[in-house]
């Protein structure tokens, strides 16, 4: 049989590349004659660059940029045939703050990465959005590209208080002639009840008071720049980075669809007999632009069965099928929570071996 292995990361334990390798190792124990095609996936969040590099190759440009709280952090650009891929989580990811100081977290580092991509000659820059610690409306990115305002743009969301004027002309000039793409699985607008602060503020450690304050600042930022764009789907992605990129002319695309196109997932699914995906927790959030739902849609279009391997499966069989899966299997159910976290690769390989007994002819 021909097996296409296309998992997301298992957050906190395995990258998508590591997860794909573990699934392949386990599957081969049971079915060594099967042909396995590895296609680790991403929705634009952490692991975006590694996933694309694993399949596309290209040149990695290693650099250092300001992190969400100012200290320099390492980051990597991927350059492939005139396109640069940027992973915002490397420069402003939640893992860099430990969920603290969310009001001050800035996106300056992401702007620096975009600037370096342009300086390297990229004519197209794709920014993967997800996993951010920031809620600054992308103001830091705009500042890094030359935008000016009557308040500091590089001090995080809290510094936007009282903003009445933003000059975007220098930033727009810096990316003139460059195609910008914002890759995200988030449909949130910039502000309001379903905006960046109120939807994602709690997971960034923000209190109710801080969330209300930042939401107001984002409303003011929209008022002095472009209210219409602030209402677009994806404007609230990565704490408002989507909005800042849209102000510079970026097209918003589904992260999973963009990665699927880049790695030719549909073509590879048609050449396979079964598609295997996975993620840390398979639940109802998996349907909202997440990797498993995106992979399942590709498998369905190719008329191929799709199964999911997950740390935990938190939906029933009816809900699972509604999400496009023929079956879903839980790591915790097989080996227990302690082993699943202490030996994630070995545990995932054991689960894949078990699944191969059912699905490999």
Structure overview:
- This protein folds into two domains: about 1-40 and about 265-360, Rossmann fold (3-Layer(aba) Sandwich), CATH 3.40.50.10350; about 50-255, Glycerate kinase, domain 2.
- It contains 17 helices and 13 strands.
- It has helices at about 15-30, 50-55, 90, 110-120, 140-145, 170-175, 195-200, 210-225, 225-230, 240-245, 255-260, 265-270, 290-300, 315-320, 330-335, 335-340, 345-360; strands at about 1-5, 35-40, 60-65, 70-80, 85, 125-130, 150, 165, 180-185, 250-255, 275-280, 305-315, 325-330.
- The strands form three sheets. It has a six-stranded mixed β-sheet with strand order 3-4-5-6-9-10, with helices on both faces. It has a five-stranded parallel β-sheet with strand order 2-1-11-12-13.
- α1 (about 15-30) crosses α17 (about 345-360).
- It is globular and about 65 Å long.
- The model has no long low-confidence stretch (mean pLDDT about 95).
Strand and helix layout:
Layout: E1 2-5, H1 16-30, E2 35-38, H2 48-56, E3 59-66, E4 72-80, E5 83-87, H3 88-92, H4 108-119, E6 124-128, H5 139-144, E7 148-149, E8 166-167, H6 169-174, E9 179-184, H7 196-200, H8 208-223, H9 227-230, H10 241-247, E10 251-254, H11 255-262, H12 265-270, E11 274-282, H13 291-301, E12 306-313, H14 317-322, E13 327-330, H15 331-335, H16 337-342, H17 344-359
Parallel strand pairs: 1-2, 1-11, 5-6, 6-9, 9-10, 11-12, 12-13
Antiparallel strand pairs: 3-4, 4-5, 7-8
């Amino acid at each position: 049989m021909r097996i296409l292995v296309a998992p997301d990361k298992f957050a906190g334990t395995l990258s998508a590349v590591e997860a794909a390798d573990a699934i392949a190792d386990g599957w081969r124990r049971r079915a060594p004659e099967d042909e396995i095609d590895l296609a680790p996936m991403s929705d634009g969040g952490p692991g975006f660059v590694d996933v694309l590099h694993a399949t596309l190759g290209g040149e990695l440009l290693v650099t250092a940029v300001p992190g969400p709280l100012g200290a320099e952090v390492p980051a990597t650009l991927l350059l492939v045939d005139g396109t640069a891929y940027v992973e915002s989580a490397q420069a402003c990811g939640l893992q860099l703050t430990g969920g603290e100081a969310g009001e001050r977290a800035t996106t300056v580092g992401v702007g620096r990465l975009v600037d370096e991509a342009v300086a390297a000659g990229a004519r197209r820059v794709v920014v993967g959005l997800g996993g951010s610690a920031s809620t600054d409306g992308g103001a830091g990115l705009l500042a890094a590209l030359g935008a000016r305002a009557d308040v500091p743009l590089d001090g995080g969301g809290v510094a936007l208080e009282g903003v009445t004027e933003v000059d975007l002309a220098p930033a727009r000039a810096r990316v003139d002639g460059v195609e910008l793409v914002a890759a995200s699985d988030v449909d949130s607008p910039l502000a309001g009840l379903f905006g960046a602060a109120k939807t994602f503020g709690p997971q960034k450690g923000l209190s109710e008071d801080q969330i209300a304050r930042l939401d107001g600042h984002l409303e003011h930022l929209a008022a002095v720049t472009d209210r219409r764009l602030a209402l677009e789907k994806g404007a609230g992605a990565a704490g408002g980075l989507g909005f800042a990129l849209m102000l510079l002319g970026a097209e918003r695309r589904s992260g999973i669809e963009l990665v699927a196109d880049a790695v030719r997932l549909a073509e590879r699914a048609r050449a396979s007999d079964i598609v295997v995906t996975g993620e840390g927790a398979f639940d109802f959030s998996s349907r909202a632009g997440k990797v498993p739902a995106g992979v399942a849609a590709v498998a369905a279009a190719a008329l191929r069965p799709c199964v999911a391997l997950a740390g935990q499966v938190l939906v029933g069989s009816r809900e699972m099928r509604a999400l496009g899966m023929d079956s879903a299997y839980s790591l915790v159910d097989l080996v227990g929570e302690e082993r699943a976290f202490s030996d994630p690769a070995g545990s995932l390989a054991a689960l894949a071996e078990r699944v191969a007994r059912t699905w490999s002819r």
